[in-house]
Amino acid sequence: MMKVQSSKFKVQNYLFILLFTVYGCGYSIHGKASLPFDSIQLGKIENKTVEPKLQDMLYKALTEEFLKQGVVVSPGAGHKLNCILYQFDLRVLSEKADIATEYEVIISGNFTLVDPAGNIREFKKTGSPFIISFSAPPGPLNQLIALKELASERAMKDMAMEIVAVFMYR
Description:
Blueprint: H1 2-24, E1 39-47, H2 54-68, E2 72-73, E3 79-96, E4 99-114, E5 120-127, E6 132-135, H3 141-169
Parallel strand pairs: 1-2, 1-3
Antiparallel strand pairs: 3-4, 4-5, 4-6
Helix pairs in contact: 2-3
């Protein structure tokens, strides 16, 4: 009898510790009913940088992130998200014998959310919250370009994750 009570006590303690850890650190669980909207329209994504295809990468990343959060992307939705991408920088982080060996991708944009009543929420200078870097392999230039493309996609996914969280949960 003592063993049953002891293991039940341990389970209750573990449950308490788990709940305290999740809710005590600022994390919260949001259900679909608590979302501010259940569908969104992705409006104009304007690329004012010299890097091609960024608008396509961002459109795809935003669509995937909204769907992960339970929000339908629809052209007839009441809420509309617009974006202007204005910064794309490829910065050299390190070099060896005057040859760049590691790069950082920096992408920023201004986002605007318009609700059905016409109210506008703006978020300026939003980018990836993480440092996105890659190492340049010795060899042909096409390998470097392919790595830059992958790093750009990763930066777009991180930016989409950040902007969806801002609009949905703050």
